[in-house]
UniProtKB/TrEMBL annotation:
Pfam family, one: Acetyltransf_1
Name of the protein: amino-acid N-acetyltransferase
Organism annotation: Candidatus Methylacidithermus pantelleriae
Catalysed transformations (reactions): L-glutamate + acetyl-CoA = N-acetyl-L-glutamate + CoA + H(+)
NCBIfam families tied to this protein: N-Ac-Glu-synth, PRK05279.1
PROSITE patterns: GNAT
GO molecular function terms noted in the UniProt entry: L-glutamate N-acetyltransferase activity
The entry's keywords: Acyltransferase, Transferase
EC number(s) reported in the record: 2.3.1.1
Domain N-acetyltransferase: 277-426
Amino acid sequence: MNLSHLRGILTYVPEFRDKTFVIALDGAVIAHENFSHVVLDLAVLRSLNIRVVVVHGIGWQLTQAAKQSHFTPSNIDGTGVTDRPTLELAIQVANHVTHQILEALTSCDLRACYANAITAYPYGILRGVDQEFTGKVEKVDVSFLRDLLSHQIIPVLPPLGFDGEGKTFRVNSDGVALAVAEALGATKIIFLCSYAGIERSGRLIRQLPVTEAESWLKKDRPTLEPHLRSKLEHAVRACRRGVSRVHIVDGRVNEALLTEVFSREGTGTMIYADEYESIRPANKKDVRVILDLIRESMEVEELAYRSREDVANRITDYYVFELDRTVVGCVALHSYPETGQGEIACLHVARGHENKGLGRKLVSFAENVARSRGLRQVFALSTQAYTFFQQKMGFREETPQILPESRRKRYEESGRKSKILVKDLTG
Ligand SMILES: CC(C)(COP(=O)(O)OP(=O)(O)OC[C@H]1O[C@@H](n2cnc3c(N)ncnc32)[C@H](O)[C@@H]1OP(=O)(O)O)[C@@H](O)C(=O)NCCC(=O)NCCS
């Protein structure tokens, strides 16, 4: 990367400012001589106000430590049975690796700390076999991580978790990265590994839509190497749960991380969710689902009251956001062809799914529908989310005069005194 790349990087700065990237480091990358360069790359991300969370593995170090002590661990990556001696060694190794990362970050003047943010429960008995100290991530302490990030501190998470009684469990680091990214509503997970990315017939795949990755996992599962299978499975789940980009990058290559983030071509494999594929037109069966979703918001007057008939009669105007076959958001676009305007209405995101970008996606989607219908302007009426429209979606406040006449009449009759937010559509 040279000075001329700086201009290229600058185009990404507004897009990534204040966004969260989860950087998942394989143990082998931390042991590699390029690791000091990886840390410099993290310093660049921080200098651009990107919030960085580091999750690390210990597979390579655990293998080395076991070899040195002539010990055979019951598993290396936190996915099989973890017996007591393997857990003890994993704790020692994990502490050492976390310390190594903290040392390296500190040497670049980056503030960082070990974050005990994972609650894990035992995996239990699988096909009759007790997985002993292998755990699964149950909960992520989101407010703790958010506090650290808001104080410009990089949280570093090892592949370990505690249960409610303080017992330690070994967890898989890919699983930690996924859980943390989902909980924080991260923009990206970047897996830094000791291979180039995902290859097919000897060719590196640069970009892989999540639907394609899913069909590989279905068709070719037995032929995929376990480490690639794990990365692909976690990438697919991440994309399905709102983390729209997952990158698999060779952490042994100088500047691979920055090139992946700040260039169109990248260096590794990017698995991506089509931003809008989770949004579909609503159908008759969704009427009840939509009403259940918005009931509370109607009660507290965030949304205007709508009866079952109101929704049913205009159901073709509605769109729903579906995650894992559950509707978690909705929006409607009512057209006023006589004035070339569209109303974005009934925008709602279910509690528990907020702050993951769903609201923004629903509004952008409705804007695109309006464009495709040849409308030149959209408006929204809001009592409690007007700053969302202004600050996040680029709407401006206007007077009722801007509304189509029929709509203005209803606006005045309702007495809700909603703010009127407007956006001109271009392109
Ligand atoms: C408004 C709403 C749709 C946002 O959905 P969301 O999925 O949480 O939004 P996103 O994740 O895309 O964006 C979150 C950002 O918007 C901000 N935001 C969310 N709700 C907001 C509100 N009511 N007012 C101002 N800002 C808001 C968040 O603080 C966050 O800011 P950040 O990115 O700087 O951290 C959701 O909160 C909701 O359903 N509200 C109740 C119904 C409502 O008021 N609908 C609008 C009627 S027209």
